[in-house]
Amino acid sequence: xxxxxxxxxxxxxxxxxxxxxxxxxxxxxxxxxxxxxxxxxxxxxxxxxxxxxxxxxxxxxxxxxxxxxxxxxxxxxxxxxxxxxxxxxxxxxxxxxxxxxxxxxxxxxxxxxxxxxxxxxxxxxxxxxxxxxxxxxxxxxxxxxxxxxxxxxxxxxxxxxxxxxxxxxxxxxxxxxxxxxxxxxxxxxxxxxxxxxxxxxxxxxxxxxxxxxxxxxxxxxxxxxxxxxxxxxxxxxxxxxxxxxxxxxxxxxxxxxxxxxxxxxxxxxxxxxxxxxxxxxxxxxxxxxxxxxxxxxxxxxxxxxxxxxxxxxxxxxxxxxxxxxxxxxxxxxxxxxxxxxxxxxxxxxxxxxxxxxxxxxxxxxxxxxxxxxxxxxxxxxxxxxxxxxxxxxxxxxxxxxxxxxxxxxxxxxxxxxxxxxxxxxxxxxxxxxxxxxxxxxxxxxxxxxx
Length: 450
Hints:
By secondary structure, this protein is of the alpha/beta class. It folds into 2 domains: 31-64 and 346-448, Aspartate Aminotransferase, domain 1 (Alpha-Beta Complex); 66-345, Aspartate Aminotransferase, domain 2 (3-Layer(aba) Sandwich), CATH 3.40.640.10. The chain contains 15 helices and 16 strands. Helix 8 (196-214) runs parallel beside helix 9 (238-250). The chain is globular, with a radius of gyration of 22 Å.
């Protein structure tokens, strides 16, 4: 193993990182993680910390889930790869499809289209939405509506429905026909409304207005995350998702639940949609489906939508879309084992309890530090603090100060995620109450440092 300085130099010279300026690695070398166990990670200098971001919202079962590792090893010995394009399939992905249909039955989802990850899943759902309407003779339904602050990956389709300029402006023009409505973000919104329920009503009304303005007959689908993750952990009021779903149903608009982050227990419910009492037409999944151990994803499709495709006699329903690694047998084996552990451990219940604990702890830190303008969470293990330089004016914190808080928190024992003025947390769903206290203690130290 080369020493720390050598690795940092080679990283700066040869690696471009997602979501970072290419020249940043030299001026501010990233943390080089060399080991992981349980809910902790260890860097090249031997510093061990609680992983407060769970890999990247995906290592729900921690880094020591042997059933998943064993399943992958066994599958590599039996059949390390085979495709599932027309005329071929593999036994492992068939077994997984049956388990997924059972797992998502309460969400009304019956079929699976397999992908390589979350961005692929979103791209697939957008394509299938347009195709669905063409099969039904509604070829004019091509538009998509989504939420400002929403995040749906970085493919051209996903970036087009993203609601954050950082993922859009450098790559425009993007997919035409994509429109956005205000997110139910109580801390910052165009209505200057801080009451979650009233804000939900206003955002639902904005969607209804946009549908009328665009013309329902031109809209293919609405896509949203049950809890907006990368946008800053924005938790909608209970009525919001259901209200949007009802407008979609009344106007023939498909409803896509992007659960790449929120699926498999993260929100304190088995799925985020289920927690709100909503059944989507499609659900995008990835990340925790293999616990992050293998790039894999699936778009789950409702029975009604599946019947439309499968009953088509015109040939329009031929799916001219797919990925080399769709239904990869090693990924499928990992997902089978992962589903078993998610169910056996009932991780959504621990996510709910530990999520309540960390949310309460963050509220106490807000009382202690004026630098915290807003605390968001309270729905499973997704939480964020938004840093400000002036709480009364809600002035965003200076970037350098936010980075100092982030670095000091890491030194004190917890990896969190810094995004703009937000410090976000999405730790493994198997962490203990003691682990939560360690994260909170590290944050306390980070905040006190400035």
